[in-house]
Design goal:
mainly alpha, 10 helices, 81% helix
Length: 179
Amino acid sequence: MKVTKEQIKELNPCKDVWEWYLKNQEEDLLTLLLDANKRNPSDARWLFTRLMNKNQCVKIAIFSARGVLHIFEEKYPEDKRPRKAIEAVETYLKEPSERNRELTDAAYTAAASASASAASASAASAASAASAASAAAYAAAAYSYAYAYASASAAAASAAKEELQEKIIKEAVRVLETL
């Protein structure tokens, strides 16, 4: 997928990002995002969430949360709240009914509670994993999906670091290319 200077400018990037982009003009989105990720992962997340529609952001939030779910489940094998949140979001994407949105709302609350429980137990990686699931549910519940995706991605990245962030970027580009 190609991006142009005009497309980037229309997204109203902050001065720092705009100046960086002008120095590193890459038309290939994957290369641009991977370069941005090396510089500042939040800039990469900012860019591709602005290029996505809501469903694309939700798909990436799910991908991010699934990428770190095992961290939470290894620490808390009996606690299925984050997994159920992800499953609720997947169901909502397949059938975006009011009933499924309500289930997603409930799943968001449950996953957020799981994240808080893990955080209070000083299990930072597990808390980040549950937070990623919570953010995916938040995205599907028709709230601020770009913010929620960024939260899911950031939580996932903090739990699994660079390798997952690069996988998320590659998946984001794949999702963007399948419009």
